[in-house]
Hints:
four-stranded mixed beta sheet; binds zinc ion
Amino acid sequence: MSANTLFLRLEGPLQAWGDQQSKFVIRRTSEAPTKSGVIGMICAALGISRPEAGDGWLPKLGALRMGVRLDRPGVRWWDYHTVGAGMQMRIAEGEGKFKPGAILTRREYLCDASFLVALQGEPGLIAQLEAAMKAPKWTLYLGRKSCPPSRPLLEHPACHFPDLLAALQAVPWRQRLKKDQRPPTVDCLLDWEPTSEQPEAPDEALIWYDVPLSFDPPAHQPRFVMRRELRMGVDGEVKLADKPAQNDTLRPPRPRADYGNTEYKKRRQERLDHDHKLCLFCKSPATTVQHITYRRAGGNEEMDDLRSLCRLCHDGVTMLEYGLGMGLDRINPEEPRWRDLIIRKREKIIEFRSLETRRRRLAAEEVE
Ligand SMILES: [Zn+2]
């Protein structure tokens, strides 16, 4: 039977899959590759530019069903990046010197993550995409240009499968290093599609705004995503590969914070409930929590280690922390000494957002 499923192995030291929250000065990453990120990579392989993609390619590629297996979720990490934006920026030449042109942004990455992506569609298209990935026209990267892949993207040949889940179960899980512990389960994120038995998306379906309608200017529509847990091991749903993917090397000596940890999730929820789901700083609805200490991060947190914050205040605090050389103890937004600094950072972020929005509007008018 002709192959209807293309597999991509997305693995590297750094990956970054921006979602709709990834805008302006703080660019976050999703926990897994987004559909727009994967489609962007395919367009690069085909040699289709951003403006060209809108003419016919995006509807065709957006209709592919996508499933992602989170073989190694990775660790979140930060970097900074300068961008030109016509703003006055302090420069290194000395106190009080400013230069127009560049501003600092913060960028989040997933370190050492590994994903298996399955794309399903009409066999003719799948063959065309596989050929393009074998001989890409432009350089391929994992979400951001600074993120090269460390393994062949086409590690597994295209094949025929009845559905996405069957495809993701068929590829064995591979240890990276001999001493890496294998998890008891791996998560999958699968496109949800209506069936005759289930015409409406179930309550637990997630909504990801990452189906690209246009890359230039960026516009996305939502899709439903279902999370499935697959058991691993000899008798599990996902088999184990015999050999590790790479030879044994020393691991970097840093602790791995595990935000997927159930204990952490519980503590986080307790903190949000305790704060009535309001930002401790500005009383807007809280969507994040701030670790004021990382001493017990990764599942042993106590409620007092966390503070509920809205996204804006959290971004403000995160930007303040950057460059302060803080260790395990971080900014406590309740302490009066941070108050004015956080307010000023918040204003900066709001100002930059409006500037960037204006720039985008101008850019859209220019192409028309
Ligand atoms: Zn707030």
